[in-house]
Amino acid sequence: MSLSLATAGLTALLASCPRAPAAPEPFHDEFERGALGARYRAAGSWRVVDGALSSLGDHNQPLWLEVALANNVRVEFTAWSRSPAVDTKIEIFGDGLRHESGYIVILGGWQNTISAIARLDEHERGRVELKKKWEQGRRYRWTVQRTDGKTLELLIDGERVLAYADPAPLFGPRNDRLAFTSWESEVFYDDLVITPLP
Questions:
Q1: Nearest 5°: phi and psi at 30?
Q2: What strands, in cross-sheet order, belong to the sheet with 103-108?
Q3: How far apart are CA 171 and CA 8, in angstroms?
Q4: What is the pLDDT of residues 23-59, one digit of tens each?
Q5: Using an 8 Å Cβ cutoff, are 139 and 78 in contact?
Q6: pTM assigned to the model
Q7: CATH class name, domain 26-196
Q8: Residue 154 DSSP code
Q9: Alpha-carbon distance 2 to 161, whole Å?
Q10: Burial grade of 8 (CB within 10 A; 0-12, 13-18, 19 or more)
Q11: Residue ranges per domain, the chain?
């Protein structure tokens, strides 16, 4: 067999093999514009106000970001609430469509009495909790990350406050989206950075 025929055969074989999905890329959003933009799935009262993403309280109607997350990822942003109830929260490793399709990470929920990480249900019996009050109007820098394939961590201003170890972690094409969400508080999110990790 000639070298050119062998090369052509190898090329055809490689082309017929399924390709691995492209690794997610770093993403950042400072919300310095007047509208949500094409990457966000519009919902409820979600809008951009004075250079920050905001909701007036949308009863767990998430604003999904159309950016795929790596299995291990670091998500950073600044969040604050104008409401005494505080109740800032996100959904991570969800399906991009439904509330409670991934993990729910909550700071100052239930009238600023409980912070939690829960899986597929905010009221999950196995959720991890922290009973602590947070300040109305204070800007907190969140880091939500998974570095080992199974443990989701919440850090606030660089301090780890919650960690959820999941023996059956959610990931893959049906669990690779991020959403901002709210209940009845006026909340704000800004300076979003998503960094894929090995």
A1: -100, 0
A2: 40-41, 63-65, 177-181, 88-94, 103-108, 114-119, 128-130
A3: 37
A4: 578 999 999 999 999 999 988 999 999 999 999 999 9
A5: yes
A6: 0.87
A7: mainly beta
A8: E
A9: 64
A10: exposed
A11: 26-196
